[in-house]
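Action item from last week, closing it out:
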Amino acid sequence: MITPKEKALAITPGTWEHRPLMVAGRKLGIEILAWREPFERRINSPICTTANGFAHQDEDAILICDAGTTYNSCQMLPSEMLEKLRKCAWELEKARQELVSCKHYVSSTLGMEIVDDRITRIELFLSTLDLPKP
């Protein structure tokens, strides 16, 4: 497992972008660029072709750039963000279940409406997350 300090040293800062790596008018691959303020740029090594040739190269570059830019904006890898979202969703589901189980203790109509509203809000939020199962 990479420690946060090692991770911070290993990831190029800045906003990551990709573009075709062109030599003599031919696309040889994709290169990843990390833009830093004010206008300095640092070029990472190009992405080589895979067994599929260029079939998924652009999509792979988009994913890599998004992961690098995401890390630089919040100091978390996308997999770490997903894990935190799953934990939040789990906590929200627990809260929803507790609200459902305590509904019969609410005596007033207004109190019941508030509890029902909170349950609905939690359910709506959880459904919009649409997280993959671990």
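Closing note: Residues 78-102 form the longest helix (25 residues).
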